[in-house]
Design a protein that fits this description.
single chain, 149 residues, alpha+beta, Dna Ligase, domain 1, 2 domains, three-stranded antiparallel β-sheet, three-stranded mixed β-sheet, globular
Length: 149
């Protein structure tokens, strides 16, 4: 079985162990929570979600785990323009990669995928002889609820 065959949570926990970190306690709790998410979450949202599910972890531990996972490239930081760092799982090769629609009225964040956009971004990077490691597109506006549609 290759690393690509492993689920994200297994790769992240294995990566933590390989980097010399224990993979139990808060680290496992945060990884398990993130593995079940479909879009980016702030540290506070991760903390609140874990607590709602009955988990016990401190907010400082959540921040430390997210920072470590970002350094090891198991999560990607997402900046939607509100000054709050958000994190989402980073998959090798960008499988299931998505971008974000942000409602500036209610704050809703929705993921979207677009294969044509991905091709254009890779073409632009290639044209500029730029080796793209990661990217994120954030579109701001009003969701259908806020726009009245």
């Amino acid at each position: 079985m290759t690393a690509v065959d492993l689920a994200w949570d297994e790769r992240a926990l294995g990566g933590l162990r390989s980097a010399g970190f224990r993979s139990g306690g808060a680290r496992r709790t945060v990884v398990d929570y993130l593995a079940g998410q479909h879009c980016c979450r702030s540290a506070q949202e991760v903390f609140d979600g874990i607590r709602r599910a009955g988990g016990r972890v401190g907010i400082a531990s959540v921040y430390r785990v997210l920072d470590t996972l970002a350094e090891l490239r198991y999560v990607q930081r997402v900046d939607i323009g509100d000054g709050i760092a958000r994190f989402e799982t980073a998959l090798p090769g960008g499988e299931h990669h998505h971008h974000h629609l942000v409602c500036d009225d209610c704050g809703r964040v929705e993921p979207f995928e677009d294969a044509a956009l991905e091709r254009v971004l890779h073409r632009v990077a290639g044209r500029h002889r730029y080796e793209m490691e990661a990217h994120d597109v954030v579109l701001h506006g009003s969701c259908s609820d806020c726009a009245g549609g």
